[in-house]
Amino acid sequence: MKLEFHGAAGEVGRSCIELSLKDGDRFLFDVGIKFTEGGFLIPEKVLDIKEVDGVFLSHAHLDHSGGLPLFEHKDLKGPIFCTRQTMRITEIMLKDSYKIARIKNLHPAYNKTDLKEVQKDTKFVRYDKWYKHRNIRFMFLNAGHIPGSAMVLVEAEGRRILYTGDINTRKSELMFNCIPDDELIDNPVDIMISESTYGDRDLPDRLELEKKFLKSVEKTIKLGGSVLIPTFSLGRAQEILLILSKKDWPCKIYFDGMCKKLTRSILSTPSKYVDHKDILSKMFYETVEWVGSNKRRKDAVTKQGIYLTTSGMIQGGPVLQYLSEMWHNKKDKITLMGFQCKGTNGRHLLEDGYVYIDGWKTYVKCDVEKYDFSGHADKKGIMNLVKKVNPKFVFFQHGDDDAVSNLKKWADKNISGKAFAPKVRDTFELD
Q1: Count of C-beta atoms within a 10 Å radius of residue 215
Q2: Residues 6+ apart with CB under 8 A from 128
Q3: What's the pLDDT score for residue 99?
Q4: If we measure between CA atoms, which residue out of 209, 216, 287, 215 comes closest to residue 245?
Q5: For 2-201+375-429, CATH number?
Q6: What is the pLDDT of residue 315?
Q7: CATH number of 206-370: 3.40.50.720, 3.40.50.10890, 3.20.20.10, 3.30.2130.10?
Q8: Contact between 134 and 56 (Cβ < 8 Å)
Q9: CA-CA distance, 189 to 389, in Å (whole number)?
Q10: Under 8 Å CB-to-CB from 204, ≥6 apart: which residues?
Q11: C-alpha distances in angstroms, 411 versus 58, 269, 288, 386?
Q12: Same topology for domains 2-201+375-429 and 206-370, yes or no?
């Protein structure tokens, strides 16, 4: 048995890990991309793609799914296994990514036919049920990260391999959290491949964070201002709607961007680990006002309101049009709802007080706040999960060097198994 790390080892992005067996069968855990200023990076050194016997897709975020059309272009033959919710959302995300690449004149490295091939080759599976494919068995378990997200448990050559994908061990308004059940506790896991995004820090208490956020929005509205909430369209936008549902607002909530299409998909697809769908449905179909054109945005922004729109790092999308009308108003507030990557407008706004609007560096006069409503486990959550699973081998990936090394140092002292911090292109023989 062999593991090869083609991406997301010592980095966040382009998740792709290959499991090779003695009988020649090969499987991939995720096929993602990593966005850069000049385009995107793909998994490295994946040879003979047409010989891959199957892909286990943990969830729909593009750093886990975005490479699938490219691999189809290179003649991927094996089925792509994922939950029904992931299948529906991935289709939307890939089509949108392709559209944006064409608009920005970035070569997407694949065509519309490849998008259709991804759909054709995708096989949906149910949570908590064993499936057989070739000489292995596998099961998808709730990961708690976003709708449809799953950990993947594989049995092969007498060993059990757990790939976490992205996980959240804490309950959110939208998702039931990842809890290791009897399948992981009572039956030993030999190899665990764990995400490490927040492996070097603790995240704030979620309920306290919700209270702080709602209090801040209330204060701005009472003082006559509006609140702009740049948000990630998948998972975060829906959770914010659920949080906002806890108060009666004297102004309208405007809902814009990719949030609308993805919320509709989440509500229309059965998923046992998505919570509060009744409240989300009421907010989406009865409470918020949908916005979908420049004319409607110009009209909406002239009124006091709460504007919930993409993109979460202010890199593109409708948020820039709202911001172009609001940046000078000291009564207004911008609330960032998660991590802001280096070099993005969101990061510039947080650290330097400016954003680029239509190419112009613009110093923003609004109040700016940030709330860590992360869909990931923090270091305590990851450590507790690893302890409970108690694997013989644990590989920490999907995190920067500090996060990965912190978890490895902890594991070296606190679990009986052996810990690894792989780099991209590293290979491990596990015979």
Answers
A1: 10
A2: 139, 140, 141, 142, 181, 183
A3: 75
A4: 287
A5: 3.60.15.10
A6: 87
A7: 3.40.50.10890
A8: no
A9: 7
A10: 372
A11: 24, 38, 46, 8
A12: no
2-27: pLDDT as tens digits: 999 999 999 988 999 999 999 999 99
Q: What is the pTM of this model?
A: 0.94
Label the pairing between strands 393-397 and 191-195: parallel
- What's the rounded Cα separation, in Å, for the pair 17 and 194? 11
Torsional sign, CA 299, 304, 310, 316: positive
List the one residue out of 46, 84, 86 whose CA is nearest residue 67.
Answer: 46
Confidence of residue 105 (pLDDT cuts 50, 70, 90): low
Q: What tokens does 406 get?
A: 């912190």
Which of 314, 288, 287 is closest to 228 using CA atoms?
314
Tokens of 413: 């002292």
The full set of domain ranges for the chain reads 2-201+375-429, 206-370
Question: Per-residue DSSP letters for 351-373?
Answer: HHSEEEETTEEEE--SEEEE---
Place of tokens 């102004």: 251
Biggest CA-to-CA distance, the chain: 68
> Is residue 403 within a helix (H) or strand (E), and if so which, with residue range?
helix 401-414
